[in-house]
Design goal:
The chain has about 100 residues and is α+β, with helices and mostly antiparallel strands. The chain has one domain. Helix content is about 40%, strand content about 15%. It has helices spanning about 25-30, 50-55, 70-100; strands at about 1-5, 15-20, 40-45, 60. It has a two-stranded antiparallel ribbon with strand order 1-2. Strands 3-4 form a two-stranded parallel ribbon. It is globular.
Length: about 100
């Protein structure tokens, strides 16, 4: 099961999409045809790397590579982002627990 949600900063579910078959996060988002351009801030996990090209306010974790490891600033950014995104991850846990 693959779940994708749009959640307010207070943890309220605005949109929930569940795919039975495996589908990449970004592909599922594009198929949903959701326009989130009016959102103030968009927080996403690393599966949505291309989202920043579509929406300037999107934030995804910074990735490292063999040639360019994460700096301390990048690690701090990722930590702060994950602290904000925990609300969404908690929603996913509830959805999966209660089979909503």
């Amino acid at each position: 099961m693959k779940a994708q949600a749009i959640v307010t900063s207070r943890g309220r579910i605005v949109y929930l999409d569940i795919a039975v078959n495996y589908c990449h996060d970004m592909k599922l988002f594009k198929m949903s045809r959701r326009n989130i351009g009016q959102a103030g801030k968009i927080l996403a996990d690393s599966g949505y790397q291309g989202l920043m090209k579509m929406y300037s306010q999107a934030q995804t974790p910074r990735k490292s590579s063999k040639l360019k490891p994460l700096t301390l600033e990048d690690k701090a950014y990722n930590h702060a982002l994950s602290k904000e995104r925990i609300k969404v991850e908690n929603i996913f846990a509830k959805v999966k627990t209660f089979k909503i």
